[in-house]
Design brief:
alpha+beta; about 140 residues; Thiol Ester Dehydrase, Chain A
């Protein structure tokens, strides 16, 4: 694992990211990828992947992706809005999230996060807008 991924895994300790079993697997050419288990931690009562778990994966990827593009000693990235279209259900295995920046401005960023099943089917399509603010 490269040093960026190691640092990101360290950030995730003792957070919801760790609780849900989200694993950051790749950061290359501005694309951040992670996987999340579909199990008792991420199921809704009917045994399907909970839509909120998909949104948690999407927000994790968008937030971390944005943070990787700024000087965190000077700036913070905070979510303004997130939406998600739940396309397909999943009962077990893993889902994979891939985040790409659509816009990287001085004060805002917009990220698209695609979540797919192990078979490559689109499970959820999400878009997140973040504000880039000065740390005080």
């Amino acid at each position: 694992m490269d040093s960026t991924l190691e640092k990101l895994q360290e950030w995730s300790k003792n957070t919801m990211v760790e609780h849900l079993g989200i694993e950051l697997t790749s950061y290359k050419d501005g694309v951040l990828i992670a996987k999340m288990p579909v199990d008792k931690r991420t199921h809704q009562p009917m045994g399907l992947l909970h839509g909120g778990a998909s949104v948690a994966l999407a927000e994790t990827l968008g937030s971390i992706g944005a943070a990787l593009t700024v000087d965190l000693s000077q700036k913070a990235c905070v979510g303004l809005e997130i939406n998600a279209n739940h396309i397909r259900s999943v009962r077990e295995g893993w889902v994979y999230g891939e985040a790409k920046a659509l816009h990287q401005g001085r004060s805002t960023q917009v990220w698209e996060i695609r979540i797919t099943s192990e078979a490559g089917d689109l499970v959820c399509l999400s878009r997140m807008t973040l504000a880039i603010i000065d740390k005080k």
